[in-house]
Write a structure and sequence with these properties.
Blueprint (H helix, E strand, L loop, with lengths): L2 H5 L6 E5 L3 H12 L4 E5 L2 H10 L4 E5 L7 H10 L5 E6 L4 H9 L4 E4 L4 H30 L11 H14 L5 E4 L6 H10 L8 E5 L8 H6 E2 L11 E2 L1 H4 L4 E5 L6 H13 L1 E2 L8 E2 L3 E6 L3 H6 L5 H7 L2 E4 L10 H16 L5 E2 L1 H9 L5 H15 L4 E2 L1 H6 L15 H15 L4 H8 L3 H10 L11
Parallel strand pairs: 1-2, 1-3, 3-4, 4-5, 6-13, 6-14, 7-10, 10-13, 15-16
Antiparallel strand pairs: 8-9, 11-12
Helix pairs in contact: 7-8, 14-16, 18-19, 19-20
Length: about 450
């Protein structure tokens, strides 16, 4: 790791030196602390293992020959401690074959005595880079899973311009941000924009979806767990806090977490230290926190559903997202954006939306905000025969306005039934695919089919 990169981190790398030779311990300490690393020393294998049981280290320098325990045996015990530390073996000339064997047992590399300071600096830097890449690979796998769920911030209204300007101003600081607003207004996109404009932009942006995580697994998701910590914990797991090291941790819909988890989260926020489920080892974390909610947290506090002390920790800078009905000047630009997006994704060639249809889009209040607008345009592009989106297409997509133009159906119920039938026809009777296009789950579609007395026959697919 480069020196300037190291000093840009607010939490220095944690290094443990286990060696019974005091001169060797002191030399390592002097060399590494000058680089800004936090260094702990242990004069025996037993003392070093005791430290590793309590504290997480990024790199361990381990002497291969010590009086109280063989170095290979110590290495195995280090790896059994669920530690993700990279271990560098310190070896003399006569034990190089054993040092090579240690690499097969999980050591990162070995350092032969005598060595010059540059050899130590270089090898420790490589070990830290490997540890960073391991965490980055976990992050990239999460990014690939969520890539299709993201889109860009598209706006032209003054209300959104003010939000984006304030996001840019707070981004350059390290302050915790609370983003409030109705579901579907783009809170996650603003959180990502803050990260992208921050000094942490080259580090991970990790999302914790508080609305979908199973309550019993929430602590494991946040802090990680060790193998055997509970039924089903078949391997060690790195938690979101550790995965976001030196980056940003975004809690989406934070009001959904229980009071018990809130207490543990508060402690992690205050101390910047976490422990995996099933372990007492302390991991020091350096993350920027952003939280979002569609609930009134002050009301939740009064009702005893949210901790007041956690609220004040999160509510350092607040951004309020305006609902779509209060920034309708954004709708034409958003509509064009979604038109282009789903034309490409669905291999369609819808050229645009007629003024009459756009008038209906602008008159609708969009209770589901931008998310509802996007889902609607996906349905429109799937169902429309084009080349332009017409007012009758909006009825089939579920947009019904009092006093709107006549459609092929005579009532809201008829329009809904007609929409379902048309969608099923386009999906060749496949109910799972039709439910996805309609933006509902399969159980809801099944209930609607029963209510509208729609029978697809035994040949219809799932």
């Amino acid at each position: 790791m480069e020196r300037d990169q190291l000093r840009s981190e607010s939490i220095p790398a944690q290094i443990l030196v286990i060696d019974d030779d005091k001169a060797m311990r002191d030399a390592c300490f002097q060399i590494l602390t000058r680089l800004g690393y936090q260094v702990e020393l242990a004069a025996s294998a037993r003392q070093g293992l005791g430290l590793l049981e309590r504290v997480s280290f990024d790199v361990v320098l381990l002497d291969l020959v010590m009086p109280d325990q063989d170095g290979l045996e110590t290495l195995k015990k280090i790896k059994q401690l669920e530690t993700d530390s990279e271990v560098i073996i310190i070896t003399g000339y006569g034990t190089i074959p054993t040092a090579v064997e240690s690499i097969k047992s999980g050591a990162f590399h070995f350092l032969s005595k005598p060595f010059v300071p540059d050899d130590l600096r270089h090898l420790v830097g490589r070990a830290l880079e490997k540890r960073r890449l391991n965490l980055e690979n976990l992050y990239l796998r999460q990014e690939l899973k969520s890539k299709d769920e993201r889109t860009d911030l598209v706006y032209q209204s003054e209300a959104m311009a003010r939000v984006v300007e304030m996001a840019a101003r707070v981004a350059v600081t390290d302050s915790t941000v609370l983003i409030t607003g109705e579901s579907g207004t783009g809170k996650g996109l603003v959180a990502r924009r803050i990260h992208q404009l921050s000094p942490r932009s080259r580090r991970p942006f990790i999302t914790v979806d508080c609305g979908t995580l199973v309550e019993t697994l929430f602590e494991s998701e946040l802090f990680g767990h060790v193998k055997g910590a509970f039924t089903g914990a078949d391997a060690n797991k790195i938690g979101k806090f550790e995965m976001a090291q030196h980056g940003t941790l975004f809690f989406d819909e934070i009001s959904n977490i229980s009071l018990e988890v809130q207490a543990k989260l508060l402690r992690a926020v205050e101390e910047r230290k976490v422990s995996k489920v099933g372990s007492h080892r302390v991991i020091t974390v350096d993350v920027r926190l952003i939280a979002a909610t569609n609930k009134d947290l002050t009301k939740a506090i009064r009702e005893g559903a949210f901790r007041e002390d956690l609220f004040y920790r999160l509510n350092v800078v607040r951004l309020q997202m305006p609902p779509l009905r209060e920034r309708k000047s954004d709708i034409p630009r958003l509509a064009q954006h979604f038109l282009e997006k789903y034309n490409q994704r669905l291999r369609k060639q819808i050229q645009g939306i007629t003024p009459e249809a756009m008038d209906l889009v602008l008159r609708y209040d969009w209770p589901g905000n931008v998310r509802e607008l996007e889902n609607t345009f996906e349905r429109l592009i799937v169902l429309s025969n084009g080349p332009y989106l017409e007012p009758e297409d909006l009825a089939y997509a579920g947009i019904v306005l009092p006093g709107g133009p006549d459609t092929a159906a005579s009532s809201l119920k008829d329009q809904e039934r007609d929409l379902i039938l048309r969608t099923l026809k386009r999906c060749n009777g496949n109910k799972s695919e039709a439910a996805r296009v309609l933006g509902i789950d399969r159980k809801t579609l099944r209930e609607k089919l029963k209510r509208f007395n729609i029978s697809l026959g035994p040949e219809a697919g799932d």
